[in-house]
Hints:
Keywords: Hydrolase, Magnesium, Metal-binding. InterPro entries: Inositol_monoP_metal-BS, Inositol_monophosphatase-like, Inositol_monophosphatase_CS. This is inositol-phosphate phosphatase. This protein folds into two domains: 3-156, Fructose-1,6-Bisphosphatase, subunit A, domain 1 (Fructose-1,6-Bisphosphatase, Chain A, domain 1, 2-Layer Sandwich), CATH 3.30.540; 168-275, D-Maltodextrin-Binding Protein, domain 2. It contains nine helices and 14 strands. It is globular and about 50 Å long. By secondary structure, the chain is α+β, with helices and mostly antiparallel strands. It has a seven-stranded mixed sheet, sandwiched between helices.
Amino acid sequence: xxxxxxxxxxxxxxxxxxxxxxxxxxxxxxxxxxxxxxxxxxxxxxxxxxxxxxxxxxxxxxxxxxxxxxxxxxxxxxxxxxxxxxxxxxxxxxxxxxxxxxxxxxxxxxxxxxxxxxxxxxxxxxxxxxxxxxxxxxxxxxxxxxxxxxxxxxxxxxxxxxxxxxxxxxxxxxxxxxxxxxxxxxxxxxxxxxxxxxxxxxxxxxxxxxxxxxxxxxxxxxxxxxxxxxxxxxxxxxxxxxxxxxxxxxxxxxxxxxxxxxxxxxxxxxxxxxxxxxx
Length: 279
């Protein structure tokens, strides 16, 4: 990675990003939790794909603060890309990139539930080098730096080993967001030895894998803001990820889907095998 990024991550950079996330939450997100008016919530592609004034305000807040922390960096956020899809190309460019999901799990946020997170990942030339996952309703902060491990509230975490004989717990893409064909493929996991459920916030599901509370996720979409932070968190906690094409997931896109993230190779191979991928 570039020397500027190395110095940033070796110094106060990670703590400064944490502070920026907490401030964006305090200014834009939590004051609106359970306080949203109807006109402050809008549909993007349907009743389950929502955007709120909190999403928009938090992304603007983070764009300002993160850009100032690392001069020359660019911000690729979910709401910005929704307005200008060409911004997505920056993820694979030569400038440091902040990949931002200002409110991951907006449906839960908009309905006053706790299952949402704020996600930030720092990428360089298509590789994620650091990530931050913040669950404001629980005040839980997870940080990962490539080669430096994964920490939750400052404590190192590990995916650990699965309990012998226990069913594999797997979260998958929810049917309301995917095609019937994708849903039918995921239903192949409805088999003895696997306990499948629909996913909540992707960021929080990755956090559960990193903490050893969930065995795997299987997803059918590749928006980098949903996955970049969590994939590094899981990897640094000892987990693995691979696409249906048998290669690691790329935040720059072009992945063969679905892809699976799991606590270990045995779990990942079994789930991909059931889905019919992973050669």
